[in-house]
Write a structure and sequence with these properties.
Layout (H helix, E strand, L loop, with lengths): L6 H12 L2 H4 L3 H21 L12 H9 L3 H4 L6 H14 L6 H9 L13 H13 L10 H10 L5 H15 L11
């Protein structure tokens, strides 16, 4: 598959995250690129699962909003238990922009993005988002059938910029602070 970047999705994510640039600090570029990679990988997984080009995830506002906010609580609230604040901030943004009808889907997309089992059917937004984040979180080690070449193309277009090393440091610190519950965001 050929990587086609949806500039509208990338711009939408960047516009949302601009508000959070100071909270993200030196991690801004890494997080922005991660969010964009998740949406780009979702497009590739969608096509691989038989979805059509007319329904690409990157064209859906829910994917843009979920991608922008899904891990933001790490920085906005300084917590490793970041799903609740990430969801709250996404919901507030949707209310503030008059887009309340998208709240249920965006909430589920964020809440289930670290679920270890399938969250829904293969072409559902929730499942595509979960798989796409997993692909990027694992740096393409887990790919759900996506070719290594396709993931590398996404990674070249939107480099990690230290994002994955930041996650390693945060995970280590979280495990040391809470050895009996080191990954509160993971669901079964």
């Amino acid at each position: 598959m050929e990587l086609t970047v949806n500039d509208g999705a990338a711009t939408g994510i960047a516009d949302i995250l601009e508000t959070w640039a100071s909270a993200l600090g030196g991690d801004y570029r890494g997080y922005l690129n991660h969010a964009i990679r998740v949406v780009q990988v979702a497009d590739l997984l969608h096509l691989r699962a038989g979805g059509g080009e007319a329904e690409l995830p990157s064209a859906l506002p829910e994917f843009v909003v979920a991608a922008a906010f899904h891990d933001l609580g790490i920085w906005s609230d300084g917590t490793w238990d970041y799903l609740p604040p990430s969801i709250e901030r996404a919901q507030r943004w949707l209310r503030d922009t008059g887009d309340e009808t998208r709240i249920p889907l965006v909430t589920t997309m964020i809440d289930d993005h670290h679920k270890l089992r399938a969250a829904a059917g293969p072409l559902s937004p929730v499942e595509l988002f979960r798989k796409a984040d997993t692909v990027d979180f694992t740096s393409g080690i887990v790919r759900f059938g996506l070719s290594a070449r396709d993931y590398r193309a996404v990674r070249r277009a939107f480099p990690s910029s230290g994002f994955h090393w930041k996650l390693v440091r945060l995970a280590t610190a979280g495990a040391l602070r809470h050895p009996l519950h080191p990954a509160p965001m993971v669901k079964f």
